[in-house]
Design goal:
Elements lengths: L19 E13 L2 E7 L14 E5 L5 E5 L10 E6 L7 H7 L6 E8 L9 E7 L3 H13 L4 E7 L8 H8 L3 E5 H4 L4 H7 L4 E7 L1 H13 L7 E4 L18 E5 L4 E5 L5 H8 L16 E6 L2 E2 L15 E3 L4 E2 L3 E4 L2
Parallel strand pairs: 7-8, 7-10, 8-9, 10-11, 12-18
Antiparallel strand pairs: 1-2, 1-6, 2-5, 3-4, 3-6, 12-13, 14-16, 14-18, 15-17
Cofactor: FAD
InterPro entries: 2Fe-2S_ferredoxin-like_sf, 2Fe-2S_ferredoxin-type, 2Fe2S_fd_BS, Beta-grasp_dom_sf, FAD-bd_FR_type, FNR_nucleotide-bd, MRET, Riboflavin_synthase-like_b-brl
Enzyme class: oxidoreductase
């Protein structure tokens, strides 16, 4: 995901670290079928740090699971952060816990805001959402409307009951918003949507893996080719973490702040080895798509295998996702 730190939306909110604070789950409400919205505030009230469209926070759930969720409330609402969570029965447990636990009135540890999906300057914007993927795009649509910039948003879901924030989006954008309930009209015509906007438009997409893979392929083969901005909820290919499949040997990791030197075997991740000594190192997806485990690199040559850092940015990247990425040098030094 690329960004331009000189454009009006950019700030140090893109810092991969983020601050941790305890927030109260003040309110919960249903905004679509199997989608629960949580409103988070300071326990005693008061303003929260500002954030920008595309930002997310990471919740530590009562069980200890850490999960990232896009902020989808009003940027101007300084009193609360809002996230919406889709229940995925076959998922890894985070969404089920949120839906099945009485969270209202409880405090959660919240890290962020963090923005790896920021708006970049463009002549206009095509926003493509699948299901819960609407959450980071809704604040973008609000921001673009406020700035008087052209945009179009396409939201698809299995049926109308799953089109989250549909009424608000239509009220906001009118005929700039296309709702696509699959049971009525089929899948969104992504090729037609991409062909209908000028090459100068930025393309943003968030949703299920097949949709994002399709958007990426269509943009790659377009004339001229486009570079879409995508945010994934699952690994790019749905396989096991990539370091288990790709060849890689053993290497050493030096933890600069802790003064530790550890051996990372060929069949284990950096994250696994580091957590044996530093169990509080943050992580979530363990598949290289969420960015929670992003760690500064102070020496060595990282072998980037995540989907967070754009391929074009990897040669100069100063951080790595330690859940999947490895090392092309004998020793890797991390700021841990």
């Amino acid at each position: 995901m690329s960004s331009d730190l000189d454009h009006p939306w950019s700030s140090d909110l893109t810092n991969p670290g983020g601050t941790t604070r305890r927030l109260l789950v003040r309110q919960a409400r249903w905004i679509a079928h199997d989608v629960l919205e949580l409103r988070l505030t300071r326990p005693t009230g008061g303003p929260l740090p500002a954030w920008e469209p595309g930002a997310h926070v990471e919740l530590t759930l009562p069980s200890g699971l850490r999960r990232p969720y896009s902020l989808c409330g009003e940027v101007a609402d300084s009193e609360a952060w809002t996230v919406a969570v889709h229940r995925v029965p076959e998922g890894r447990g985070g969404s089920r816990e949120i839906h099945e636990t009485a969270l209202v009135g409880r405090e959660l540890e919240v890290r962020g805001p963090i923005n790896r999906f920021p708006l970049v300057p463009a002549a206009g914007y095509l926003l493509l959402a699948g299901g819960i993927g609407v959450t980071p795009l809704l604040p973008m649509a609000r921001e673009l409307t406020a700035r008087g910039l052209p945009w179009r948003l396409v939201l698809g879901a299995r049926d109308r009951s799953r089109l989250g924030y549909a009424e608000e989006l239509v009220a906001l954008g009118g005929d700039r918003v296309l709702l696509v309930p699959q049971d009525e009209v089929g899948l969104p015509d992504l090729a037609a949507e991409l062909a209908a906007v000028p090459p100068s438009y930025a393309v943003y997409a968030c949703g299920p893996r097949p949709m994002l893979d399709a958007v990426t392929a269509l943009c790659r083969t377009a004339d001229p080719a486009r570079s879409p901005h995508v945010e994934r909820f699952t690994a790019a290919d749905g396989t096991e973490p990539v370091q288990l499949d790709a060849p890689s040997g053993e290497f050493e990791v030096v933890l600069a702040r802790s003064g530790l030197r550890l051996t990372v075997p060929a069949d284990r991740s950096v994250l696994d080895v580091v957590r044996e000594k530093l169990p509080d190192v943050p992580f979530s997806c363990e598949e290289g798509y969420c960015g929670t485990c992003e760690t500064p690199v102070t020496a060595g040559l990282p072998d980037h295998r995540d989907t967070v850092i754009e391929p074009s940015e990897r040669p100069t990247a100063t951080t790595m996702m330690i859940c999947v990425s490895r090392c092309d040098s004998p020793v890797l030094e991390l700021e841990l």
